[in-house]
Design a protein that fits this description.
24 strands, 3 domains, 19% strand, alpha/beta, nine-stranded mixed sheet
Length: 561
């Protein structure tokens, strides 16, 4: 055999933005060996049948830090075309960590990211203290896709300052130590550093997570150390509370790091929302600052329904939520219980039913439904209270009806405006986090199916670039993100006409049976990671082709040994 794998008859969008072309791709080991008309033979062949062939997608914002311990297949992103994922975002990571602090670090991840604490404590080996040792442990888990990690501000602050790190500013000596540990983590393989200034993220006791109120001088010192080591600076900012101050912090980071800076952003409710952020980023880029943003390409927030969360928070509704699905179904079919639930819902002051949009009753969830598909609108047409409608639809669907609350990115015109910028990439799916509340791990599938195929926001080739080589560059990856000879063989074969996400569902496959969303996709003929076919015909094969991706300089140091 001449090759290990040949993909024949594909329409290749190579990730650079160049015009797509028809060709075969030959793979030997974990690299692309040849592109063109391949006359040789291989151990395995995939007939693309004229369908789209792209590099594997790069997901810049995940929280797979815990899930990798018990689910090395890393669903759902591995079922949505992602072959490289960056974890450790938002400042919350499991390293560095002293043995006596393991429970508080796990508890912090639970309150910020809705990952069950006991699943974290029992599902991971906790065999590390520093970040390099953490990556060594992750490597032993043999992931299905490539994993890179950011070292988190919360963990470093707690490691250096203990409980004082939650609210106090460090001494000059502590600040120096924090910056040094961040830089050393990048030298040991971290892709970069993450910090969290969002006021909605809390410790278990209600205080903001460590680093939320860090002085600019501390973050700049970290950026200098991280930049010197060749790392990325990732930010969750408080733009809604102090836009100019947070924008200035980005500028300071970019100058100090001398390299890549990334932050998360969502669009507001008005059609023109995002213009201020676009202007800010473009001004920074014009000033030779490598600042980029990511935003989830659809409306997002909690997914609610009988199988997951409830729209009302009264004791009666929370008692219902405490039951399993069969118990909930039985309860709402009892006329007396249903009447009590409806009565307390009517008395509740806060009504979010206008923000809840029905995902539909088909195989494909409707993430673009108009206002007439909100729970409030459906109830009005039926001349019911929204609680009546919620219960009725739950009964009619055996508890499967789901609504998504568009808490972020409510206005799709604003989302399109934001994502039209060259410096705002689709992403922010948060895979691995908020596991029983939110399911946005299929963002790349939505990007190609809705915004690219159905709407035409960007030409196909540029849309592919924005989920492949562009985020790979932000991560500092030089051997992934494009299809070219000698590059790593991370590849998708996609039937774009059929491509869509499937309806999410709650399953119980985490440790201790903890509930979490699962979501499949349709249209992925194959996904290949490092030359290994990890998915075929929308189904994971069980093969694990991934590796732990260490920062550029860490890889160079290993290669030199």
């Amino acid at each position: 055999m001449d090759y290990d794998l040949i993909i024949r008859n594909g329409l290749i969008a190579d990730g650079t933005g160049a015009p797509a072309y028809k060709a075969d791709i030959a793979i030997t080991g974990d690299k692309i060996a040849a592109i063109g008309k391949i006359d040789g033979s291989a151990k395995e062949e995939i007939n693309a049948g004229g369908n789209l062939v792209t590099p594997g997608f790069v997901d810049l914002h995940t929280h797979l830090d815990a899930q990798i311990g018990w689910d090395p297949l890393l669903s759902p992103v591995s079922r949505q075309g992602v072959t490289t994922a960056l974890m450790g975002n938002c400042g919350v990571t499991f390293a560095p960590c002293k043995k006596e602090d393991q429970e508080i670090i796990a508890a912090m991840m639970e309150t910020v990211e809705d990952i069950p604490r006991q699943a974290i404590l029992t599902g991971l080996p906790w065999s590390w203290e520093n970040y390099g040792e953490y990556l060594d442990a992750i490597e032993q888990m043999n992931p299905a896709i490539n994993i890179g990690g950011l070292v988190g501000h919360c963990a470093i602050r707690y490691y250096v300052m203990g409980d004082r790190g939650v609210a106090d500013q460090p001494t000059p000596e502590e600040q120096e130590q924090i910056a040094r540990i961040a830089g050393d983590a990048v030298k040991d393989g971290a892709i970069g550093f993450s910090t969290n200034r969002f006021l909605g993220h809390y410790m278990p006791d209600g205080r903001h997570v460590p680093g939320t109120h860090a002085d600019h001088d501390e973050v700049v010192a970290i950026a200098s150390a991280v930049g010197e080591a060749g790392g990325l600076m990732q930010n969750v900012l408080n733009l809604g509370g102090d836009f100019e101050g947070e924008a200035e912090l980005l500028r300071k980071e970019a100058r100090a790091a001398g390299g890549r800076v990334l932050f998360s952003i969502t669009a507001g409710a008005k059609d023109t929302s995002g213009a201020r952020v676009r202007s800010m980023i473009e001004e920074m880029q014009a000033g030779d600052m490598d600042v980029n943003a990511i935003s989830v390409p659809r409306g997002t927030g909690n997914v609610l329904g009988l199988q997951c969360g409830m729209p009302w928070k009264t004791p009666a509704w929370q008692d219902l939520a405490a039951l399993d699905l069969n118990g909930r179904l039985a309860a709402i079919q009892d006329p007396e219980t249903a009447a009590r639930l409806i009565a307390v819902a009517k008395a509740e002051e806060m009504d979010i039913s206008a923000e809840l949009f029905w995902l539909g009753d088909g195989e494909r969830p409707d993430y673009t439904a108009g206002d007439d598909e909100s729970l409030a609108a459906i109830a009005e047409r039926a001349m019911e209270h929204p609680a009546d409608t919620f219960i009725r639809m739950a009964v009619e669907s055996d508890g499967k009806t789901l609504f998504t609350r568009r808490y972020f990115n409510k206005n799709l015109k604003a989302v399109a405006n934001l994502l039209s910028s060259d410096y705002v990439l689709p992403g922010l799916g948060d895979a691995g986090a908020h596991v029983s509340q939110v399911t946005d791990g299929g963002w790349a599938t939505f990007w190609l199916s809705h915004w690219t195929r159905d709407v035409g926001l960007h030409p196909l080739e540029d849309a592919v670039r924005r989920v492949t080589s562009a985020p790979a560059r932000v991560m500092g990856l030089e051997d992934r993100g494009t299809i070219a000879e000698g590059m790593r063989a991370d590849i998708n074969v996609i039937d774009l006409d059929r491509l869509h996400e499937k309806m999410p569902e709650i399953i119980h496959e985490f440790p201790q049976g903890a509930p979490h969303f699962s979501q499949a996709a349709e249209g992925y003929i194959a996904t290949i990671c490092n030359g290994t076919v990890i998915l075929r015909d929308d189904q994971l094969t069980g093969a694990r082709g991934g590796e732990v991706l260490r920062g550029t300089r860490a890889r160079a140091a290993v290669a030199a040994e």
